[in-house]
Structures are given as C-alpha cells and as structure tokens.
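Would you be willing to look carefully at the protein I have copied below?

:::
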Amino acid sequence: MADTTTDLRVERKPKLSETVVAAIRKQLLAGEVPPGHKLPTEGQLTETFGVSRTVIREALAKLAADGLVEPRQGA
C-alpha cells in the first residue's frame, strides 16, 4: 500500500528581527563595520530597515547574545 498522505507543513516566514539580524551579521562579518566601531543608532536602523524600534531592539539583543555586538546604554 503506497503512502498517499501529503506533507501539510507550512513554511513560516522569517520574523522581521531575524531578517535584521541576518543583515547586520552580514555587515559585521564582511568588515563593513570594523570591530570597536559603533553601529548606527536605533532610529537610523529603523529607517534603514523600515521596521519598528521594537524589532531593532530584538535584533540587537540577539546579536549581543551571539557575542557580535556589545550594548552600551547611552553611548
């Protein structure tokens, strides 16, 4: 008897923050932002990526957890 069931899994779209993380990670690893240099401000990143500040903060938190950025409040 042949298996006639179809695969009904739906592939989810990546979260906005995951897209931002991937883009910033690519810039960091490509050397576009040298180690020790500041990233653009949250406001500039919101304009660049066309997303909310919450999305940017979530992305930066993920990058910090991965050890790629070091958050400095008010710097």
About this structure: The radius of gyration is 17 Å. The chain has three helices and no strands.
